[in-house]
Write a structure and sequence with these properties.
In the C-terminal section; belongs to the enoyl-CoA hydratase/isomerase family. The protein is of the alpha/beta class. The chain has 16 helices and nine strands. The structure holds ligand LG6FSS7D.
């Protein structure tokens, strides 16, 4: 990056970081009189401070320039065909031919200066800059090859409104096409999500119940369909209690990490409703018929540890270290070869897709009927009139 670039980084951030200062002074000294041995040593130290992996191609270039500066033209025999790494390094060095040591040193210092500047500018980007615009009920951010979709109605325990279902679908659609490796769904505040917003059932004009139930079933079919078809690894980061649909779709995720404060509750019978999110198929498969019945029919609420023992949750972490441990893990996973990861996900999931879509359709048609039942209407009215809480 040129001098103007380094200065621009300052203006964007609160002030110059030590890395930016080093990049700038390196740039100024080398431009004035050519890179000295001291500049070269300083650049070698700076390489160790880079936060972002520059990639193999750049690393090979740095290696070659380093060898050329310190030893001159390549003077060792080419490694054997199976010694792939050393062969690549040798090739990079050898490709520099008779480049003079001083030029190699200058090029090394220039390259490190560019890397440091772009590394610093990517580090100082505040969260507000990374937030993707266009969502009212979610905060969607992308960093470290991870797109995070955070449900953002903490005052309502992240209950899912119609708008929120739609925005999650849009965010998933965008994430399936962006350059992220892993997609995370999580909640803001003390709840992961309290499930369907029961206000979705309110304000329906008389005579429009059937139509609204049908529209609800279509929305739900599309929503669950997005999870069935999602092509990249999907991770649920369960920061607190989860209820209803936010639990049932977990069978369609690839990893489920939970805080030990989380609980898992599918009280459908209490609400006059029936299982959705393909849980009538995925839960018995994951935890066995008897445990699935206890959850889906009798509304047994599971602790995070119980859900983990039954295979619904991948791993449970203490709440005090939950975010730190989970994000460290996910950042490491996000560095895995992206295409291979996506292909593996697809081979694990593709065989089931047709079945899952059929289950989704069947569940929604049953649920459409349930929403019109007295049992469901009474349960919703009871919650809304503050008589009942789960
Ligand atoms: C179209 C697709 C349909 C898909 C169908 C899916 C089925 C399901 O998801 S079934 C699950 C439905 N969820 C519930 O029945 C949960 C109802 N909520 C509660 O029982 C409680 O609110 C709670 C146990 C989650 C939390 O209790 P707590 O005492 O800690 O807090 P509250 O004061 O009750 O909640 C704060 C605030 O949030 C509102 N709220 C919470 N959950 C919902 C919800 N699911 N729907 C609508 N509103 C919800 C609650 O009313 C409070 O609002 P106010 O501060 O305005 O009173």
């Amino acid at each position: 990056m040129a001098l103007a670039g380094a200065v621009r980084c300052w203006r964007l951030g609160a002030g110059p970081s030590s890395l930016q200062m080093q990049a700038l002074s390196l740039h100024m000294s080398k431009t004035a009189m050519g890179a000295s041995q001291k500049d070269f040593e300083s650049a070698m130290n700076q390489v160790k401070l880079l936060k972002k992996d520059p990639g193999n191609e750049v690393k090979l270039k740095l290696y070659a320039l380093y060898k050329q500066t310190t030893e001159g033209p390549c003077n060792t025999p080419r490694p054997g065909v199976f010694d792939l790494i050393n062969k690549a390094k040798w090739d990079a060095w050898n490709a520099l031919g008779n480049l003079p040591k001083e030029t190699a040193r200058q090029n090394y210092v220039d390259l490190v200066s560019d890397l440091s500047s772009s590394d610093s500018s990517s580090q100082v980007k505040p969260e507000a800059d990374r937030k993707q615009p266009g969502y009212e009920t979610l905060v969607v951010t992308s960093e470290d090859s991870i797109t995070k979709i955070m449900m953002n109605r903490p005052a309502k325990k992240n209950a899912l409104t119609i708008q929120m279902y739609r925005e999650i679908m849009l965010a998933l659609e965008a994430a399936s096409k962006d350059d992220s490796t892993i997609i995370v769904l999580t909640g803001n505040g003390d709840y992961y999500s309290s499930g369907n917003d029961l206000m979705n059932f309110m304000n329906i004009p008389p005579g429009e119940m059937e139509k609204e139930a049908k529209n609800g079933a279509i929305l739900l079919r599309d929503f669950v369909g997005c999870f069935i078809d999602f092509p990249k690894p999907l991770v649920a980061v369960i920061n607190g209690p989860a209820i209803g649909i936010s639990v049932t779709i977990l069978g369609l995720f690839d990893l489920v990490y939970a805080s030990d404060r989380a609980t898992f509750h599918t009280p459908f019978t209490h609400l006059g409703q029936s299982p959705e999110g393909c849980s009538s198929y995925t839960f018995p498969k994951i935890m066995g018929q008897a445990k699935a019945a206890e959850m889906l029919m009798f509304g047994k609420k599971l602790t995070a540890r119980e859900a983990c023992a039954q295979g619904l949750v991948t791993e449970v972490f203490p709440d005090s270290t939950f975010q730190k441990e989970v994000w460290t893990r996910l950042k490491a996973y996000s560095k895995l070869p992206r295409n291979t990861l996506h292909i593996s996900k697809q081979s694990i999931r593709n065989l089931e897709k047709e079945k899952l879509h059929a289950v989704n359709a069947e569940e929604n048609s049953v649920l459409q009927e349930r929403w019109l039942s007295d049992e469901c209407i009474n349960a919703v009215m009871s919650f809304l009139s503050r008589k009942a809480k789960l």
